[in-house]
Amino acid sequence: MLYNLLKPLSGFWKPKPIKIHNNVFSLHGKFTVGLLIIFSLVISVKEYFGDPINCMVDNKDDKSFADYYCWIHGTYIQKRYLNGE
78 CB contacts (<8 Å, ≥6 apart)? Predict the structure, then answer.
C-alpha cells in the first residue's frame, strides 16, 4: 500500500545522466580516429603497391632473386663486401 502511494513520486528521484564530455570533445575523438584509420591505410597500401623493398646487387639478373631473399630474410649481403673488397 505504501508502495502505491510513493510510486508516482519515484520519477523525481531518478538521477539525471551524467555527461562528461561536450560536442567539441566528441568531434575531436571522431577526427582523431578518422586520421588514424587513414594513415594506417596509407602505410598498408605502400607495402602492396610500388617497390616496397630494394636490395642492392651489381648483377641485374640476380635482382629478382635478391629481392625475394631480402623480403624473406630481411637482408642480403654478398660475401665479397664482408671482406672489405
Answer: 57, 58
C-alpha cell at 43: 602505410
Q: Cα angle at 63 between 60 and 69, to 5 degrees?
A: 160
Side chain identity at residue 65, one-letter code:
F
* Cell, residue 55: 636490395
Termini Cα distance of the chain: 101
- Each residue's pLDDT expressed in tens, for the chain with a length of 85 residues: 677 777 777 777 777 788 887 889 889 989 999 999 999 998 888 777 766 677 777 777 777 777 777 777 766 666 766 665 5
The C-alpha atoms of residue 39 and residue 66 are separated, in whole angstroms, by 30
Query: DSSP letter string over 54-79?
Result: ----S-GGGHHHHHHHHHHHS----H
